[in-house]
Amino acid sequence: MALLHVAPTIEVESDRIHGCTPWLAQLLVLFSYSRCVTIDRRQQRVWVTTRWLWFWQSKRTIAFDRVSRIIYRAQALPSLSPLRYLALLRSSDVSDSAFFLISIAIKTAAGDRRPTDELSLFTVWQQQPRDGNWLDELAGIKQDPRSTGDECAGAIVELLHEYLSVPIASH
Length: 171
Prior knowledge:
Layout: E1 5-6, E2 9-12, E3 16-20, H1 23-28, E4 33-40, E5 45-52, E6 56-63, E7 67-77, E8 97-106, E9 117-127, H2 134-139, H3 151-164, E10 168-169
Parallel strand pairs: 7-10
Antiparallel strand pairs: 1-9, 2-3, 3-4, 4-5, 5-6, 7-8, 8-9
């Protein structure tokens, strides 16, 4: 079974990436928040448009030479399942899912050495891999032993790295 995830809808073209908040995530906040990011190689620009509360919108344009690095963080989420308390079903204390936060560090000017701002681009929620239990076997669910739990977010970061040509960091 493939891991469950809520990730931005990404459209990739030869010279452009465009990603927006997925429909499901917008539904969870009653369509009061949405973020779209466009990265254009030809124009060497990153456009970020954020909409809050259905009518207020913020637009930001960043030149490629002002992007210092891609910031990639993960935050594990606690399990809310009541089944985690049953000894027979509990495989470990590991979290069921995690948020992956993808941002860019921005310099004030192209010649600056240190970034002064961080701009959030995408947030990805992804189910974490786990060891199968007897219920999984009964249902016929196969676990992929190669899963690390960040496949979706990692693919987005790799795309950003390819287009922006900046290093990837955790801070």
